[in-house]
Amino acid sequence: MTTLETPGPTVGVVGGGQLGRMLGEAAAPLGIEVIVLDPTPECPAAPVVSDQLVAGFDDEEAIRDLASRVDVLTFEIELADQDVLERVEAETGTPVHPKPATLRTIHDKLVQKRELEDAGIPVPPFREVEDAADIREAIDDYGAPVMLKARTGGYDGRGNVPVESKDEAAEALESVAGPAMVEAFVEFEREVSVIAVKGEDDVATFPLGENVHVDEVLRETIVPARSSADATERAYEVARDVLEVMDGRGVYGIELFETSESARADGDSGENRAGGGEILLNEIAPRPHNSGHWTIEGTHHSQFEQHLRAVLGWPLGETQLRSPTVLTNLLADVEDERTAQLRDIDSVLETPDAHLHWYGKEQARPLRKMGHVTVSGREEDADIEALLETARDLEDGLTFRPE
Question: Residue 337's beta-bridge partner residues?
Fold first, then answer.
């Protein structure tokens, strides 16, 4: 039986960005203490957590120090070093969730895709890339374009390069600057995601979200997704199968492509193109995910609370949708790095059922995620298109540019 005392249990988080900040906000009502480790002094999470250790994500001595002060370790960024976490867990006895082995799988996109394919999870056709000739061969087999991906280090679309023709292969590979893989380009009906939670004895899934990306960066999430009942159920099935492969408790952001029957390519060069009314796995994040931020207002127990419950081995909370909800990310519309400033916020503050989240980042950089806005309906059958229009209007009225 779960018991609370004062002080309550302490969770150590490797990473203190916006996800660490929202974990700290979710922890306080439950009496959970949070300590973060992040190389940036006064990181975004610092104002809302118990303490911050200023150290690199691979600083073994600092992570061992963190482990000595907490009941469980977790991470909010894939730059956490899985080998260090594995050694610290073995030497200190402080559990790490999700497990370092899962982080090792996720860290390398090629390893991730191979393990998932071996487990029978549907993924787009892919292959390892050693030189430009491999990309050109993939274009022969999959059709153009193909998607070239950095195997490690990519996030928010960074490290993903569409290759439109064989002539672009060498330049694209040079831009990735490291180990790479290539995938068939998925002609999808929509991009969706399942925020799934793996607890000690149970699994929970949040309602399916529909994601809108521009230039490979997530701009909007619409819940519930405008998918058919069959596609939605298939997405849940794939997500549950993914959790079977993952080791360790916590929240997992599972990004998927929903294709349509008309998505198959024409011509001989495209006959192996991914498509045809399927749900295909894109990528997995073993942590709370941007496409799940809507859960703070859209459900009774957010993805951040669920992550904390899960890593501590507590019972999971409710994941049912309160009412349709739309999220829009606030990306810095600046041309160069400058002190962060968000202007004209009154329109959001004055709009019923709109919620502003500011991440506390001191510097704005081009397309950097600085915050988000959610707009929720008041009824279960609220008009999702009207909510989306309101969210877009509010986002359009905000600016990071100086007067």
Answer: none
> Is it true that the peptide bond before 47 is cis, omega within 30 degrees of 0?
no
| Cα–Cα distance for residue pair 325/374, rounded to 1 Å | 7
Look up residue 297 and give its amino acid.
E
What is the CA angle 257-325-121, rounded to 5? 25
CA distances from 252 to 41, 167, 196, 199 (A): 28, 38, 5, 11
Under 8 Å between Cβ of 79 and 107: no
Is 301 annotated in a binding site? The answer is no
Residue 123 among known ligand-binding residues: no
Say which amino acid occupies 379. E
> What domains does the chain contain, in order, with CATH numbers?
10-96 (3.40.50.20), 125-184 (3.30.1490.20), 188-396 (3.30.470.20)
Asked whether residue 149 is marked as a ligand-binding residue, the answer is yes
Check the annotation: does 213 bind a ligand.
Answer: yes
283 labeled binding residue: yes
pLDDT single digits (tens) 136-184: 999 999 999 999 999 987 666 668 899 999 999 999 999 988 899 999 9
pLDDT tens-digit profile of 354-397?
999 999 999 999 999 999 999 999 988 899 999 999 999 999 99
Contacts 24+ apart (CB under 8 A), 375-379: 375/325, 375/326, 375/351, 376/297, 376/298, 376/322, 376/323, 376/324, 376/325, 376/326, 377/323, 377/324, 377/325, 377/353, 378/323, 378/353, 379/323
191 labelled binding-site residue: yes
For the whole model, what pTM was predicted?
A: 0.93
